[in-house]
Amino acid sequence: MFDALGSLVAFRLLGLAPDSPTGAALHFFVMDVAKILVLLTTVIYIMGWLRALLTPEKVRAMMKGRSGPGARLMAVGLGAVTPFCSCSSIPLFIGFVEAGIPLGVTLSFLIASPMVNQVAVVVLAGVIGWQMTVIYVLTGLSIAFVGGYILQAFRLERWVESYVWQIRMGEAQLANDANGSLRARHDYAWSEVRQIVGRIWKYVLIGVGIGAFIHGYVPADFVARIAGDGSVLSVIVAVLAGVPMYSDAVGIIPVAEALLGKGVPVGTVLAFMMAVIALSLPEMLILRRVARWPLLGIFAAYLAVSFVLVGVIFNTLRSIL
Prior knowledge:
single chain
C-alpha cells in the first residue's frame, strides 16, 4: 500500500523515472512518511487504549513482581517479535516510560525492536546463511539485554524530557476515567495521538528526508570503497557511515547484499546494518523529542561500541568458518 502510494506520487503524478535519483528519493520519502505516520498513529492509539485499561499504577505493580532479568527478557522478547523500524518503536518507548516501566527495560526494548524481526531474519538468512543469521539474532538480543543493565547504571531518567513524566503523572486520572466506557477510552487514546504526533511529526519529516536523500543520491558502493578490508578501523568507518542513514531491517538488507557482493567482509556489513537500523541520525532526531542530549549520547556510544565489537567478531568468525 505504501509502496503503491510512493509510486503514484513520484512516478505517475510527477512523471519521474524510477531509476533516477530524484524519483527514487521522492518515492522513498512519500512511502516512508506515510508508513511511519500511520504506524505512529496506530501504535499510539493502541497504547492509549492499553493505558485506559491498565493504569500506570497497575503496570508498575505488575513490573514490581518481576525480577530485573525477567523484565528485561520480556522487553527484549517483545522487541524481537514486533516488526517495527526504529522510528516506529519510539511511540512504544513513550508509552513504556509513561506507564512507569524502568528506563533500562524500556531501552532494552528500543534496541531489540528495530534490530530483530521475523521478516528480516528470513531475508537475511538467504543472504548470509542460517548459521550466521542465528549468531546475528543472538548477538542483537544480547546487546539489547546487556544494554538495559549498562544504561540503567547511568541513571538516565534525569535526562528524559519533563513533559513525558508530566503526561504520565498528570493524566493518570484521565486514564482511570477512561475505564468507564468505550467512548471515554477512544477519546483518551485519540488525545494521546494528537499530543504525541503533534510533538514529533516535524522530526519524522526531517528524519525521512535525510534517509530519502541518502537512498536516492548516495551510491551503494560508497561504503564499499571506504570500508572494504575488514580491519577494526574499517568497521568503525562502516558504523559511522551508517549513522546518517535511515531504513528498517528489511529495507537495508538489499544494500547489505550488494556490499557483500562487492567483497565487503560480513562483519563490516552487519555492523553497518546495525548502525543504520538502530543508531541512525533520523532516529536520534525523533528520540530527541523525549530525551535530552546526555541520554542520547550515552545511548549512542553504547550502541556504537557494541556494533564495532560485533563487526570485529563476525569478521573473525567468518575467517574461521
